[in-house]
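Sequence, please.
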């Protein structure tokens, strides 16, 4: 690896960070999300496909955390487990310290495709997340407001994201980027504190995607929701995240953790910073390594049982 963590952090800063870290441990609130040793294998009649192997990660309240890994490594499966759609064979999921493994209704979710209902207006699509929220959710009851107030709030949000004129329009009249903004608002206005965003910009053209990244960055910096974000784009992960977990090829385990060193607020220009370019190069090397492992696994059918975890996670700050 060409870049060493100390290239970015002076010894003095490291001391300060350690002290700040220790102070934080003492006063720390439990993480918004904590995955502790999650493992899952899909079982079919005679075979087993190990997909996740002891994946652990943390999203602190108000953090933007990304997951990046080769295609087919198990990222979406992990989201299904967090959302309670799948039960892990090993490991626990905790939100704010409470074990929610296998429970549904605790997260708001934004999928790759905007998934707006064509028969509902933009405004009604945005309100859907609140309509579907389970009543037992503590956050939901604290935000319990009248229908009229919810519509007023949603309209204000639509104005803020440049969709005010499209409140009564149907989804097919919106561009791809506009639909994604509406889908993001739906997740943002849902009462659950944690948002899971599964490659939300993958279907957009390059220019719209760059605009949407800037838009998301600004929206997130204003609202500071806890976010877990799946992306295939290293640049996107570095631009948006506080921390990045790099997954290995299947069965996925965490092989690198990067505490992204760039200050906020961040803007597109940061992508030209030599340190940003260096991190991008480093991470591209890691991803290439994992992709080759995945290709090897596919070429050797028995390779799906290979254990890619050596138990060590490389942590960079
Ligand atoms: N219900 C299922 N039954 C059996 N195998 C499954 C099931 N769901 C997913 N898989 C397999 O598990 C592996 C991981 O899939 P998953 O969709 O989680 O990967 P991913 O990292 O999200 O991929 P991508 O980045 O391409 O979206 C794949 O090999 C997939 O074929």
């Amino acid at each position: 690896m060409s870049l060493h963590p100390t290239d970015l952090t002076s010894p003095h800063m490291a001391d300060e960070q350690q002290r700040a870290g220790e102070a934080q441990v003492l006063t720390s609130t439990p993480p918004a999300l904590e995955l502790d040793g999650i493992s899952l294998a899909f079982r079919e009649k005679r075979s087993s496909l190990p997909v996740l192997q002891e994946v652990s990660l943390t999203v602190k309240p108000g953090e933007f955390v990304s997951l990046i890994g080769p295609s087919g490594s198990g990222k979406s499966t992990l989201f299904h487990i967090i959302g309670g759609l799948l039960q892990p064979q090993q490991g626990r999921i905790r939100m704010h310290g409470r074990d929610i493994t296998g429970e549904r209704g605790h997260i708001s979710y934004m999928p790759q495709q905007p998934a707006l209902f064509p028969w509902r207006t933009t405004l009604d699509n945005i309100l859907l997340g609140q309509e579907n929220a389970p009543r037992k959710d503590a956050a939901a009851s604290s935000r319990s407001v009248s229908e009229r107030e919810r519509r007023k709030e949603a309209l204000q949000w639509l104005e803020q994201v440049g969709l005010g004129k499209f409140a009564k329009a149907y989804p097919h009249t919106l561009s791809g980027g506009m639909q994604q903004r509406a889908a993001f608002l739906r997740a943002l206005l849902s009462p659950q504190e944690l948002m899971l965003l599964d490659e939300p910009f993958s279907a957009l053209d390059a220019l719209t995607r760059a605009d949407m990244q800037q838009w998301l960055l600004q929206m997130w910096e204003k609202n500071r929701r806890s976010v877990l974000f799946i992306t295939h784009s290293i640049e996107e992960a570095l631009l948006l995240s506080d921390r990045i977990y790099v997954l290995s090829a299947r069965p996925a385990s965490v092989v690198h953790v990067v505490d992204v060193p760039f200050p906020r607020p961040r803007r597109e220009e940061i992508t030209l910073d030599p340190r940003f370019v260096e991190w991008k190069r480093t991470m591209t090397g890691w991803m290439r390594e994992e992709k080759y492992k995945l290709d090897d696994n596919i070429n050797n059918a028995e390779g799906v049982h290979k254990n890619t975890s050596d138990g060590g996670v490389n942590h960079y700050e």
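The chain has nine helices and eleven strands.
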